[in-house]
Amino acid sequence: MRVLVITGAGISAESGIPTFRGKDGYWRKLDPASLATPEAFARNPGLVWEWYRERRAGIRKAEPNAAHEAIVRLANGARDFLLVTQNVDDLHTRARWNGKQLREDHLVQIHGDIFVTRCSRCDRKEHEDELATASPSSGGQEPERELPRCLDCGALMRPGVVWFGEQLDLANIHKVEDFLARGDCDAVLVIGTTAMFGYIGDWAVRGAGDSGQLFEINPETTPLSDVATECVRERAAVALPGLVERILARSA
Ligand code: OAD
């Protein structure tokens, strides 16, 4: 069985991580869409860094939920599997099923990884733990000199995520395209995303091809609802364990 899973912020909602467009997504009355941009970083890097540091702290405290675990179960039961997540958290990586974790090559973080810090000018990349200059949150807007700077070129370091208006990483696009080129999927699951980016809907529809099942797991309708073969109007952590068993049983 070939399976493509696409996830968004809704899958981590029950782990306590706010979605982008939900009412908890706002931070200090600021819309995430106005903070997650290169322009916001150029204008006020201290503010943007503070937001990311708080989010990192929240994610570190969060635990994967039953939906993340069910996806590991599905990956282990499929012949060919890919998970494309728009989430920058690490809950898919930390989730376990029967002691197993997702294989690294089964996961594409298409919008980057919040625990990576990269240079805003050159190619230098670091994992958060390696940063020598990370300073604790000051509770206000941090002076620019306390922000992490690149050890190679001296420019400001920035979170290793994709911001609005930025290009996706080409290597990640190739991983998804290579997977799609290997043939239609038997099942495509789109979980907890408003699917507002064209490429998300496109990959889901192309993944299912002419004969695959396209499942949408989301309490709300989205632009994909009309083309889904089945819409599960439930929270992911409630719906996923049963749905995954059903998909695996049908393929057995
Ligand atoms: P959104 O915040 O746009 O959407 C979250 C979706 O999850 C909504 O459709 C909710 O109905 C649904 N949802 C909420 N709770 C749920 C639950 N418990 N179970 C299942 N679904 C639930 O988040 P994304 O669609 O992930 O990109 O946003 C996509 C991208 O836009 C993000 O990766 C980010 C953002 O701006 C960039 O920063 C480039």
Number of strands: 9
Ions, cofactors and other ligands present here are:
2'-O-acetyl adenosine-5-diphosphoribose
List the secondary-structure elements in sequence, H or E: EHHHHHEHEEEEHEHEEH
Please state the structural category: alpha/beta
The percentage of residues in β strands lies in 15-25%
The total count of helices amounts to: 9
Whole-number mean pLDDT: 92
- Computed CA radius of gyration, to the nearest angstrom: 19 Å
The profile of the biggest β sheet is:
6 strands, parallel
Record the strand order, biggest sheet: 3-2-1-7-8-9
Assign an overall shape.
globular
**Portion in helices:** 25-40%
Low-confidence stretches: 132-140
Give the N-to-C terminal Cα separation: 9 Å
Task: Summarize the model shown.
With 252 residues, the chain is α/β, with parallel strands linked by helices. Helix content is 34%, strand content 17%. The strands form two sheets. It has a six-stranded parallel sheet, sandwiched between helices.
